[in-house]
Amino acid sequence: MSDRVPTPAQATRLAETGRFLDVAVGTANLPVHRASTVLFDTLAQAEAAGEAVGRGERHATTYGTAGTPTTMALMDALAEVEGAGHEVRAALMPSGLAAIATVLLAVLEPGDHVLVTDSAYGPTRVLCDGMLARLGVKTSYYDPAVGAGIDALIRPETKLVWLESPGSYTFEVQDVPAICAAARARGVLTMIDNTWASPVFARPFDWGVDVSVLALTKYWSGHSDVLMGAAVVREALWPQLWRAVRQLGQCVGGDDAYLVLRGLRTADVRMKRHQDNALAVAHWLLRREEVQSVLHPALASHPQHALWKRDFSGASGLFSFSLQPSLFAGDARRRAALAALCERRRHFGIGYSWGGFESLLMPARLDGLRSARPWTGGPLVRLHVGLESPGDLIADLQEGFEAMQHALAS
Ligand SMILES: Cc1ncc(COP(=O)(O)O)c(C=O)c1O
């Protein structure tokens, strides 16, 4: 009998070659793992990995949905950065809204009651009033300025309080530590959407929250080219969250996880530039006669400026301003004036997102999104101030105001 190793057929070789490289090369960045299949040497290893995934152990995997080295690196980074100084775990979802939905589905049961800030991101509200209501979960909306007064709103069946600070349309800053202390005293969970500040400017676990949800789509990735979300939870909640992640099949791909990790490397410098640019634009807006108010928590004129100063270490690039209501008579005029202000700008694009390198503007529509504290000011415009030169951005807005005045005069 020949001792020659049999030569595999071409088809076999094509399937097998180039998959395992036995060299150790250090690179600054991790390679991207794209994987559905995970391979094991033995059945025993495969079974043990399955049990470890079931228990939600760190770095355990059996399949791409449970994790790959790239997604594990991002999960670890999230836990380390967002949960600095606390025992937390992080799970990844394919969008920020998917992360919001997954944590809510992880902890809520029929008959539960949820308290949601009136300033919450619109789709969070739509989810509560839609699918969660259908599943027998009741939601009531509270004034974001409630503070420790949340205690009076807690019912025997209240399971959690949802916070977002500042609200991403009207920028009310919440007294998160006071709300968390009151909720914890009553055995109620607290969850916050920390997308606006990101961990660069806010540490929600220091404030006492149980869960922090992030749209990584925004500042973490920072380049407007990837959609992803994360739920970061205290260790005690991890089994519940992980069960929901697994049952719902929530997962992300290696390429997207890589892009978020890459964005993270520059988050600190980007956030500071967003902050400086946004403040330059906000101060300029304060002096415009067409502007009724500038809703930016870092301005001394903001109603909860003191809270922002106490709790945050900076402000991101997203804020709103309201226009003098006296300028507008009737809806048609308002529409034409807003179109003149926003359309054909040189640097500000019209877009719903934010958190990327680029500046965006969009009239904010709060119809159906407020019940506990309706918006009573003039028409709102939300700006995301990007990384361009603030002088160019201000000149662009100046032209927008001139176009708006022209539209109002015609
Ligand atoms: C405050 C806030 N939270 C969550 C999300 C949802 O993120 P995603 O677009 O990734 O679903 C957004 C998106 O605009 C947001 O503004």
Verbal overview:
This protein is 39% helix and 15% strand. With 410 residues, it is of the alpha/beta class. The chain folds into two domains: 43-265, Type I PLP-dependent aspartate aminotransferase-like (Major domain) (Aspartate Aminotransferase, domain 2), CATH 3.40.640; 267-409, Alpha-Beta Complex (Aspartate Aminotransferase, domain 1), CATH 3.90.1150.10. Strands 1-7-6-5-4-2-3 form a seven-stranded mixed beta sheet, sandwiched between helices. A five-stranded mixed beta sheet has the order 8-9-12-11-10, with helices on one face. Helix 5 (122-134) links the parallel strand 2 (113-117) and strand 3. The longest helix has 20 residues, at 267-286. Bound molecules: pyridoxal-5'-phosphate. Pyridoxal-5'-phosphate binds at residues 95-97, 121, 168, 193, 195, 215, 217, 227, 229, 353. Residues 95-97, 121, 168, 193, 195, 215, 217, 227, 229, 353 line the site of pyridoxal-5'-phosphate.
Structural Rg:
24 Å
Instruction: Sketch the topology as an H/E string, one letter per element.
Output: HHHEHEHEEHEHHEEHHHEHEHEEEH
Mean pLDDT: 96
C-alpha termini separation: 97 Å
CATH superfamily of the largest domain: Type I PLP-dependent aspartate aminotransferase-like (Major domain)
Binned, the helix content reads: 25-40%
Bound molecules: pyridoxal-5'-phosphate
For the report, how would you describe the main beta sheet?
7 strands, mixed
In DSSP terms, counting alpha (H) and pi (I) runs of 4 or more, how many helices?
A: 14
Task: List the domain count as a whole number.
Answer: 2
Quote the CATH topology of the largest domain. Aspartate Aminotransferase, domain 2
Name the overall outline: globular
Spans where pLDDT lies below 50 across 5 or more residues: none
Overall CATH architecture of the largest domain: 3-Layer(aba) Sandwich
CATH class of the largest domain: Alpha Beta
